Amino acid sequence: MQQGKLRMFIAAFAMVGSGLLLAPGSAQAVPSFARQTGFACEACHTVFPELTPFGRRFKMNAYTIDNLPQVSGMTPTKEQTLALNQLPPLSFMLQMSYTKTKGALPDSNLVPGDLAKNGQVLVPQQASLFYAGKIAPNFGAFVQITYDGVDNGFAWDNTDVRYARTVNDKMLWGISFNNNPTVQDPWNSTPAWQSPFDQRSSVAPGPGAATLLDGSQFDMSTAGMSVYAYFNNSIYAEFGAYHGAPNGFGQIDSAVDVPVIDGLAPYWRLAYEREWGRKSLEFGAYGMVAKVFPANSVQTGPSDKYSDWAIDSQYQYIGDQHLLTFTGTYIDEKQTLDATFGAGGSANASNDMKTLRLNASYYYQRKYGAALGYFSTTGSEDSGLYAQGDPVTGFANNKPDSKGWTAELDWVPYQNTKFALQYTMYNKFNGGDTNYDGLGRDAKDNNTLYLLSWINF
Question: For the chain, how long is the longest CA-to-CA vector?
Fold first, then answer.
């Protein structure tokens, strides 16, 4: 079944790609970028957070294009020693939201039959401060510090610090330091910036299993460096590695409540992009191999190994009135569970898991939009990892399978203001469609209504 889905996915994109590549050829937004460059947000974005071709070049060039008065330094030999914007490239983001599931969650005190209040208003859900722009010649950053309304605390969020240089008209190269695999990626087909953009609040339970690259276990708890190059405005190659960097990291023999990378985890990315007229098409592949100490374990002894290999594609049409985007990715993961199996946490010594995501979005005049996304995660049967009996988070059939759809309607009255209505529907959740947790909860009970206001200034 999974091989069939993969073949269908490759065939669909191949048919679309073949037609588009035969056509005649031509050869994140935050307001601080707009202030720095003097360009409106639409130069780099269709609608936040999706990048345009120019936005992808701006990112690969280390966010350094500027149109501001500079504080400059120069040596007697005309070597530049300082190029500092007179105004720092700072901006602020505020998100407010309402989240409600179809079925109320059990009361947190686990009183049989009692239900918690259904419907959560967060003001704010998130509030972020950004430094986003040029630091020095060829050196720039996207740095986000976020207050989380659920955790009621501040933390480092997505961070991407870059150095880049253009060799000639045919090539640029750069170095990225970042804290989340795929956050540095120029396209919106990889997990960090996928669309529809999914960040519902904690009222909405999410599937209990995900592939390494598609999950959130390494968000902001890793430190990575990669070297990339972009050739002839079409071929992109990136190679790097990540190391564990969880908040509050203590002694090596103390347990940490998040997974921690053991040593270095190699990451790679290859992509081909073609632009013609108002259209662009990308085909690519990416992957990561990581040895991981499981959450709540010490960082000694055996670790689990995850090997993720993925393909992706993105098509964009950017017209004066109409904007259309299709994205897709397929991730195949092999798991060797030396640590988990050795500790009795899994029934199998090795497993596999697969993720499929297909998304489409349309905007009219950049103000009115709609998006639809399909998601599927499937994997090996394992009675140790995927047990039934826990309310909401339990698994049916000892499987991690979750499948469903996300639909979204957007109103963007201004380029820095967005209102979204999103609904997520589950056909399967944690291995089953009915009574998946063994305590009477169905997959459809986790269907989620999400209202979001998103303001950047």
Answer: 79
User: Tell me, what DSSP letter sits at residue 444?
Assistant: G
Tens digits of residue pLDDT in 28-80 = 456 666 666 666 667 777 777 788 888 899 899 998 877 666 666 667 777 76
Question: Distance (Å, rounded) from C-alpha 31 to C-alpha 47?
Answer: 13
Count other C-beta atoms under 10 Å from residue 7's C-beta: 10
**Of 298, 113, 296, nearest in space to 217 by CA:** 296
Domain spans of the chain, in order of start:
2-27+96-123+167-456
pLDDT by residue (tens digit) across 365-419?
989 999 999 999 999 999 999 999 899 999 999 999 999 999 999 999 987 888 9
Rounded CA gap, 447 and 423, in Å?
Answer: 7
In the chain, the amino acid numbered 226 is: S
By the 10 Å C-beta count (0-12 exposed, 13-18 middle, 19+ buried), 171 is classed as: middle
Q: How far apart are CA 54 and CA 29, in angstroms?
A: 12
**CA-based nearest residue to 12, from 361, 331, 311, 436:** 311
- Which CATH number, 3.30.1490, 2.40.160, 2.102.10, 3.40.50, labels domain 2-27+96-123+167-456? 2.40.160
List Cβ neighbours of 179 (8 Å cut-off, separation of 6 or more): 156, 158, 159, 220, 221, 222, 223, 224, 245
Token reading at 272? 């081909």
- DSSP single-letter state for residue 184: T
User: Please, what is the Cα angle at 178 between 47 and 402, to 5 degrees?
Assistant: 65
